[in-house]
Amino acid sequence: MSMPYENFSIFIDPDNNVHLNTIKNTFRSVYFYRNGAIIIFRNHREERKTMRFSPRQLNRKSSEPLYIQVFHILRQAVSETAPDSGMVLPSTTELAHQFKVSQNTIRAAMRMLVESRLVCRIRHRGTVPVSCMRPEDPQADNRSIGLVFPMSAYDFWQPVLKIMHEAAGIKGFSLDIYLYNGDGTDLRDEHRALQQALRNCSGIILYGDFRGADRALVEQFNRERPPLVLFLIDQENMDVSLVASDGYSATSEMTEKLLRKGCRRPLFCYRNLNNTTQVRLAGFKDALQRSGLDFKPEMTCRIDFPDREIPAKIARLKPDSLICSAYSEAMIVKDIPPENIVVFAARHGLDYRHNGINLVVSPTDLLGQAAIDEVVRRIYEPKAYRRKILVRMENEVFNLKTAGANK
What we know:
Elements: E1 2-5, E2 8-12, H1 20-26, E3 30-34, E4 38-41, E5 49-50, H2 66-79, E6 87-88, H3 92-99, H4 103-115, E7 119-122, E8 126-129, E9 144-150, H5 151-154, H6 158-170, E10 174-180, H7 188-200, E11 203-206, H8 215-222, E12 228-231, E13 241-245, H9 247-260, E14 266-270, H10 275-290, E15 300-302, H11 310-317, E16 321-324, H12 327-332, E17 341-346, E18 358-362, H13 364-380, E19 388-391, E20 394-397, H14 403-406
Parallel strand pairs: 5-6, 9-10, 9-11, 11-12, 12-13, 13-19, 14-15, 14-16, 16-17, 17-18
Antiparallel strand pairs: 1-2, 2-4, 3-4, 7-8, 18-20
Helix pairs in contact: 2-4, 3-4, 6-13, 9-10
């Protein structure tokens, strides 16, 4: 007994009288099979329609290379194919036989078709025009970008992810998010998410471990075919595409600004000495050196204790200015004038609570757009050089009088 169910059918064979191979030969693919009792499968098998070509279509006296001629012929055929035709291109061997050329000639032409995004390889079906792809096709080459992202940061970065979704859509790609447990203690979950993205996507954007513990993992996946772009976190001395804020220059500039105002005891506060913090700390040290001041360990303070203890801890160090990696330190300290406090923040996460404070703002909307632009560039040009894009951070001084307009 069989009955239709949307685009599926259900076959019930309680006596197991119908052999599974019979069903496979009748229907396109079996989805569920257990003890011969219930089988769920897709629509009835479609007749395979394969394009046909002739060697007479080639001009062997032309100065134009044969693979270019084959490419033009295939491109025209693919462009004229109706979306619902179910048409499939012949295999490399069959095309070589039909055109009476070598398989290398066919491979060169097919490579150009793939790079032009006119055809794609569908597992179990063959090479088909992009217009003939179905949503359920297990695509080997598709128009999706995988964003591998830590679960702990997912909620905070929602506004940026929305921008990235829109930017990918404008370029004709979808953005698929693969979440992983990014607590830094076990990289197996990040490896799992990367493997899934590698199998299913044309390019990958990775917001990796903020401590940099996944460097070996990044190097491994950076050697794979799908382009990899690191997002928000810098990996020094690695040939990899990267999009992040220019924290080094921003910290250096803001430190020099404080020194020019007469501050001589700046204090750099942070919670975790991760990759981002290390880059900012390097900029802090560079500014001190250029200004003729020696860096001393007491010029840094790691906030690894309860918030209520922060004021007393900082007071003992007697700073006259503060550079903070997060709001919490700046909001608690009362003895330092607001104009001598610098706080790093993401634009979409601004929380204006301190009049006169110097905000070093990361333009996260530009970061998201730049990441999409870079991964799409690498998808279209797999062998292109890997760019390191550092987006300049902006300095804003918050003023209560203009707070209503900024919110």
